[in-house]
Each structure stands twice: as structure tokens, then as C-alpha cells.
Design goal:
alpha/beta, Enzyme I, Chain A, domain 2, 22 helices, 16 strands, TIM Barrel, 8-stranded parallel β-barrel, about 15% strand, Glucose Oxidase, domain 1
């Protein structure tokens, strides 16, 4: 009998294949008394070593297939296994309580998992999944149980799982794993992000696929609308085969625009550029017809390791991106650490509210050696392409002036030492804080450009943590208050002859694009795979008509009214 299951659309596309249940064996942990604690600790260390070797191999595979930012997940997993805060309590428990290693490991791991899962923060909850994934691997080796290995699949299947761990996802062979669906997870979970990178259709958070789907069932994963259909009727199967063919044809049509300029129907050009995290991501920008890089998130250079990257490492990364972009603009955001992105090796104090705390430019102005090292690397790389530098989380004019002064000091030192530096580096700022949006007319006199970071701008304006499900209804990109702030920034830039871009999720949102065209946004920075659909959409929009649409939206009272207005246009 056919069955429809609703979930969260995590990765676009339609996949149709037989079900393959990915079930890791239950690990039965028994408490045992041991006489020789030294021997038990040696057994623990052997299991840790095997797990580290496996994770290193998975990391190398992820690097080759998915890029450095995805491989960094497994670097972080290796750090967990090397973390004395996890390992030492296990050893202490073995020594002091004379219990077996697997019992001690399970007790300590469960304590950490419960701690993180109890936090009202999606990022920290995902760290709980990391600890569970890593320690389960060690426990399996201690118990002599074989882990399932998705890389051994040799026929086309839909993966069915309670959850896909990052290591499971990284081992999927795209030739055979046509899609996946899970009971738990969200759009920001590691598996969802990796599925989008691999372009594997995925539906997550269904709650019931493991209960309802058996091996061999015919399954349709609709990653466009977030639906899973089990054992469909002939008519339903035919309809989804048509929907899949239509989506593939749509992708082919989008690809024809790869080398086209992004122009509205009445001849106004805007730039469609990409957000990237590593040099390997440049290929995606090129393959999808990106006109530049609108946001290079440099923090990936600092994450998944146990020390700061050297100036030389950074220089090579920036140089590679600039060279490969062949003169197209590359906007590099200086280090944006803090909030949901931590660097354990900096040993920063814990904060009650890290999103409003010591992060981004605030940290860089205080930890100046870290900041200056990055700026030197950027300045040295500037001669290899079209570099633009922007500072994140600017709240006051003084912060921008301080950051720019440090940049100019480092530039003067390099030039004095005979190092060639580009003469025309634009220096701008992200607008993420309502205060800087409201004062944009003053900032515009001193910056070369603005890039609006809507992810944070929305959460700060609405006083609603975007990771908190209880207040997710307040994360409203189309709220007239947000649209008015965006307009203030764009108008302030244009008045001073400067340009304004946007690098938050909103820039690639099909519902927001007509409004942003009408508000006069010059540059839209988005995930590379969103560029061609956005270009197709913009070609059909008239700037003059969108200006009228935006003016109506600005005068509305609610986000719902704005959404209805945009939908009524199509």
C-alpha cells in the first residue's frame, strides 16, 4: 500500500530507487568489574587509535570528494577523540571505579551528549551528534562489533536511516546513493549540508521512515517539497518520473545561462556572486556561472585544527582563490569567529550570550596579532586578482576606522619592505547590526561598499535567535521592518556613489529576489547552486515594476502581507 510521509526538504531534486536501511547494530553495554586497570586503559587506547585511523581515512575521502570545509567536520571529530576533557574522565573512571572501558566511555559520552542536547541552541545540539558519532565508533571497537559501511553499496538505492552521521554521509557513493531520508535532522544539520554539496536529494526530520520503510520498498524522495512516497501506485510513480524529468530539464535550461550576464527584462544589470568557504569551492562558482565571490568565509581556515593558521597558509589560500577567479571580484570577510563558531584553542571565556558578545571584529580589534597576520596575508595576495576586504559585525564608526587603520598600517609596512600590494583594494563592511543600518548614511561616507548580512540582521532586529525553534516564527526576512532597513542601506550607498550587496540567505531566496531588485540591490551573493535559478528569475523581472512592488511592500504592516503581495505577482 502506498504511503506518503512529510519531512523537511534538505537537498533539492527527485530520487526514485529501492530502500536500503542503514542500521548500525545496537551496542549492549554491560558494567563489569576489572582487576587490571592498566590493561583496560591499554584496550581503550587501542580502540581510540583504530577509530582515529578510520576517521583520518574518512577525512581524506571527504577532502577529495567534498572539499576542505566538509573534511573539517572529521578534523573536529579527531579533536574530540584527542580531547583530554573526554578521554581523561573515562580513564579516571576505569582506574577509580575498576569498571570496564566501554562502560566508562558510555557513561562519560552520555553525560556530554545530554549536556549539549539540553542547550537551547541548534549548533550545540549538533555537537551532541558529533560526540555520539565519535564515541559510538570507539564503543563498537571495544565490543568487537562491525560498523555499517555505506561505501560498500553497489546498486542504486535510497538510504533510510534514523540519522545519517557525517561519517556515513561522507562515505556515500554518489553513483549508487541516489537520495536519502532520515527520522531526525534539519536543514542546518551536517548531513543536509553535505547532501547539498553532493547534489543528492534528501528529506530529513520525517520521524517515522525507519518505522514505516523496509528494505526493498520502492521509495521516492522529493527533496523539492519535502515528501517521501513509499511503494507508490503506477500513476504516482509516473507523475514523479515526470516531475524528476522536468527538474532535470530545468537544470539544463539554467545551465544555458552560465556565461550570460544577469540583466533584468528592462536592461538593468546586477551581479550574481557566490558565498564560499574554501579554495575548492571556486569550482562550484565557475560551474554555476558566478560573476565573482561575494563572501569568502575565512573562518574555515581556522576551524577543525588545534592552532592558528600561519600567514603563509592563509596567503596561499587567498592567492589560490584570487588566481582561479581570473580577475572577477572576490570579497573576503575577515575572521568572523564567535557566536556559533568557536575556536577551542583560543581558550576564550564562556559567555551568557555569545551572539551578542566577544566575536568577529570585536575579537580582532582586541587580538590584534591574529588580525594583523590575516591582513598581511590578504594584502600580499591582493596582486593576484581583484580583492575586496570587508569587516564583519561593525556596530560603530570607530570600529570601522580602527580596523581600516590597522589594515593601512600593515599595508605601509609591506610596501616599505618592498612587497608589492594592489593599489585599488576596496574596503567595506558587513551590515548585520541594526545600529549600522540606521546610521548607514554616515558609514557610506567612509566605506567603499556595504554587504548586508541578513541572517544576523534579521535575528538582531527581531530579537529572535534563528537557531531557536520556539521563536523561529520571528525569523521574518519579508517583515517590512527588515525591508526598510535594507532600503536605508542601499539608498545610503547610492547617495555616496557606492555599491550595496547582500550575502545572507535572503539574497538567493526566490520570494525575496523581486523585492531586492525593486529596492535597488547591486550584488546578490548566494550558494553557488542558487545562481543559475536566480539568473533565470531575474531575466523575467522588470526593474521598473519591481520598484513599484517594493514600494507597496515597504508600506505594509506584516511579513504575511508582503509574501501574499509577491506571490500575487506571479
Amino acid at each position: 500500500m502506498s504511503l506518503n510521509i512529510k519531512g523537511i526538504a534538505a537537498s533539492s531534486g527527485i530520487a526514485i530507487a529501492k530502500a536500503y536501511r542503514l542500521e548500525n547494530p545496537e551496542l549492549t553495554i554491560e558494567k563489569k568489574s576489572i582487576a587490571d586497570a592498566g590493561a583496560e586503559i591499554a584496550r581503550l587506547e587501542a580502540a581510540l587509535d583504530i577509530a582515529k585511523t578510520e576517521l583520518a581515512a574518512i577525512k581524506d575521502h571527504a577532502y577529495a570528494e567534498l572539499g576542505a570545509d566538509k573534511a573539517a567536520i572529521f578534523e573536529a571529530h579527531l579533536l574530540v577523540l584527542n580531547d583530554p576533557e573526554l578521554v581523561n574522565p573515562v580513564k579516571d573512571k576505569v582506574t577509580n571505579e575498576h569498571v570496564n572501558a566501554e562502560y566508562a566511555m558510555n557513561e562519560v559520552a552520555t553525560m556530554f551528549v545530554n549536556l549539549f542536547e539540553g542547550m537551547d541552541n541548534e549548533y550545540m545540539k549538533e555537537r551532541a551528534a558529533d560526540i555520539r558519532d565519535v564515541t559510538k565508533r570507539v564503543l563498537a571497537h571495544l565490543l568487537g562489533v562491525n560498523f555499517s559501511n555505506p561505501s560498500t553499496i553497489t546498486e542504486e538505492v535510497i538510504i533510510i536511516a534514523e540519522d545519517l552521521t557525517p561519517s556515513d554521509t561522507a562515505q556515500l557513493n554518489r553513483t549508487y546513493a541516489k537520495g536519502f531520508t532520515t527520522d531526525i535532522g534539519g536543514r542546518t544539520s551536517h548531513s543536509a549540508i553535505m547532501a547539498r554539496s553532493m547534489e543528492i536529494p534528501a528529506v530529513v526530520g520525517t520521524k517515522v521512515v525507519m518505522e514505516k520503510i523496509q528494505n526493498g520498498d520502492l521509495v521516492i524522495v522529493d527533496g523539492l517539497d519535502g515528501e517521501v512516497i513509499v511503494n507508490p501506485s503506477e500513476d504516482v510513480l509516473h507523475a514523479y518520473e515526470e516531475k524528476k524529468a522536468k527538474f532535470e530539464a530545468q537544470k539544463t535550461e539554467w545551465a544555458k545561462l552560465k556565461n550570460e550576464a544577469t540583466v533584468t527584462s528592462d536592461g538593468i544589470h546586477v551581479e550574481l556572486v557566490a558565498n564560499i568557504g574554501t579554495p575548492k569551492d571556486v569550482k562550484g562558482v565557475q560551474d554555476n556561472g558566478g560573476e565573482g565571490v561575494g563572501l569568502y568565509r575565512t573562518e574555515f581556515l581556522y576551524m577543525g585544527r588545534d592552532n592558528l593558521p600561519t600567514e603563509e597558509e592563509q596567503f596561499e589560500a587567498y592567492k589560490t582563490v584570487l588566481e582561479n577567479m581570473e580577475g572577477k571580484p572576490v570579497v573576503v570577510r575577515t575572521l568572523d569567529i564567535g557566536g556559533d563558531k568557536e575556536l577551542p584553542y583560543l581558550h576564550l571565556p564562556k559567555e551568557m550570550n555569545p551572539f551578542l558578545g566577544y566575536r568577529a571584529i570585536r575579537l580582532c580589534l582586541e587580538e590584534q596579532e591574529i588580525f594583523r597576520t590575516q591582513l598581511r596575508a590578504l594584502l600580499r595576495a591582493s596582486v593576484y586578482g581583484n580583492l575586496k576586504i570587508m569587516f564583519p559585525m561593525i556596530a560603530t564608526l570607530d570600529e570601522f576606522r580602527q580596523a581600516k587603520a590597522i589594515l593601512l598600517e600593515e599595508k605601509a609596512k609591506l610596501v616599505a619592505n618592498g612587497t608589492t600590494v594592489s593599489a585599488d583594494i576596496e574596503v567595506g563592511m558587513m551590515v548585520e547590526i541594526p545600529a549600522s543600518a540606521v546610521l548607514a548614511d554616515q558609514f557610506a561616507k567612509e566605506v567603499d561598499f556595504f554587504s548586508i548580512g541578513t541572517n544576523d540582521l534579521i535575528q538582531y532586529t527581531m530579537a529572535a535567535d534563528r537557531m531557536n525553534e520556539r521563536v523561529s516564527y520571528l525569523y521574518q526576512p519579508y517583515n517590512p521592518a527588515i525591508l526598510r532597513l535594507v532600503k536605508m542601506v542601499i539608498d545610503a550607498a547610492h547617495k555616496e556613489g557606492k555599491w550595496a550587496g547582500m550575502c545572507g540567505e535572503m539574497a538567493g531566496d526566490p520570494l525575496a529576489i523581486p523585492l531586492l531588485i525593486g529596492l535597488g540591490l547591486d550584488e546578490f551573493s548566494m550558494s553557488a547552486t542558487s545562481i543559475l535559478p536566480a539568473r533565470t528569475q531575474i531575466h523575467k523581472l522588470s526593474k521598473a515594476q519591481m520598484e513599484k512592488l517594493a514600494q507597496k511592500a515597504l508600506n505594509m504592516s506584516t511579513a504575511e502581507e508582503v509574501v501574499e503581495l509577491v506571490k500575487s505577482m506571479s
